[in-house]
Design goal:
The chain contains 7 helices and 31 strands. The protein is elongated, with a radius of gyration of 22 Å. Helices cover 19% and strands 35% of the residues. It is of the alpha/beta class. It has helices at 37-45, 59-66, 87-96, 118-127, 179-188, 199-208, 228-239; strands at residues 4-9, 29-30, 33-34, 50-55, 75-80, 104-108, 111-113, 131-137, 145-150, 153-159, 168-176, 213-217, 222-224, 245-246, 249-250, 254-255, 258-260, 265-266, 269-271, 274-276, 281-282, 286-288, 292-294, 299-306, 309-310, 315-324, 327-328, 333-335, 343-344, 347-348, 353-355.
Length: 356
């Protein structure tokens, strides 16, 4: 049975400001490709090729990057959500525009599921579910929608509970059988206290009426990339599964699982897992430590960098300083004129200039 896909990418990404003042969060690069590319490629690998992309904030930038989707093996259609009224409303827009007319899978454009969604689609089909969702254990469930289970069934979904009622967060992937039923459910909803139509309430509509709502508890890693910490966690998780690949030029020590993309020049030391993007330059006075992603067209003239994301077109001259747990926006220049012998942690927006 062939499913359609819907990737949601209309949000403003307020928790990732100041980066999202100049771009949608879905275009933040992770290991050489923007965040939104991960769910699209995941859907395609699961056999889902007709994909709607719900856009709003900086939507033209997303369209310009993704195009018609053919280079990813997808056929993309863009659906506008001019007012960001929640996930359930975004799903309804896909139905309202006539795109969703059969079984479909919704994938939040800022989520990455390490195991991929192919197995979950198979489970949905085998169980004959009306709705299938993914759950994952989290330490602090107050930032998520959570599921309350009883006798192996979902009895209640609660959006961002103030008190801990469950540690099972609802992952940003939802599979529905009947778009007409989803439309009926949406029209029965009322906005939450946040002024949004919540996907948890949409699914609760199915639970309350006795429809077959099933779930899988994800045993691999999953990441909602909505904060700085989430962004760095995603880098750690993605790098943790890479294999060594050297396509650029290296002249010093490159140890472990390191990716060096084409036309990159590495004269310094790199310790994996780490990523060096296309056309980037790592000088002999530089050390790249594990869990660092240096994106495309970056120049690093000195210093040490660990557990950090350095976005495209940056220039860093850190002298003796060590940059750790940092996120540096595109086209940013950082220069240390003094010999600072210690760790520095920075969160720097695009197009910034920092002199230390």
């Amino acid at each position: 049975m062939y499913l359609e896909g819907l990737v949601l990418a209309a949000g403003e990404g307020s928790r990732l400001r100041p980066f999202t003042y100049s771009r949608p969060k879905h275009l933040i690069p992770l290991l050489g490709k923007p965040l939104i590319q991960y769910p699209i490629e995941d859907l395609v690998s699961a056999g889902v090729r007709d994909v709607g992309v719900v856009i709003g904030y900086f939507g033209d930038l997303i369209k310009d990057y993704l195009g018609d989707g053919s280079r990813f093996g997808a056929r993309l259609r863009y659906i506008a959500q001019e007012k960001r009224l929640g996930i359930a409303h975004a799903i309804y827009r896909g139905i309202e525009e006539g795109f969703l007319d059969r079984e479909f899978i919704v994938y939040l454009g800022d989520n990455i599921v390490g195991s991929g969604v192919g197995g979950f689609i198979k489970e949905f089909l085998e169980k004959g579910s009306d709705v299938h969702i993914l759950l994952a254990e989290v330490k602090d469930p107050r930032s998520f929608g959570v599921a309350i289970l009883k006798d192996g069934r979902i009895v209640r979904l609660v959006e961002k509970p103030k008190k801990v009622v469950s540690n099972l967060a609802v992952v940003g992937v939802y599979i529905f059988r009947n778009p007409d039923l989803v439309s009926r459910a949406f029209k029965d909803l009322k906005p939450s206290w946040r002024g949004e139509y919540e996907v948890t309430e949409l699914i609760q509509w199915f639970i309350d009426r006795g429809y077959r709502v099933t779930y899988t508890i994800v045993d691999g890693w999953w990441k909602d990339v909505g904060t700085y910490d989430g962004l760095l966690d995603a880098i750690y998780m993605l790098l943790d599964r890479v294999n060594r690949s050297i396509n650029g030029s290296i002249s010093e020590e490159v140890r472990g699982r390191v990716i060096v993309e084409k036309n990159a020049v590495v004269e310094g030391d790199v310790y994996g897992p780490a990523y060096i993007g296309e056309n980037s330059y790592i000088s002999k006075s530089t050390v790249i430590e594990p869990f660092t992603s240096v994106e495309n067209n970056v120049k690093i003239f000195s210093g040490r960098i660990a557990r950090s994301l350095i976005m495209d077109h940056c220039e860093l001259d850190l002298n003796k300083a060590r940059l750790v747990d940092s996120v540096v926006g595109s086209k940013t220049r950082i220069r240390s004129a003094r010999e600072l012998h210690g760790d520095i942690k920075l969160v720097v927006s695009d197009n910034s200039l920092i002199e230390i």
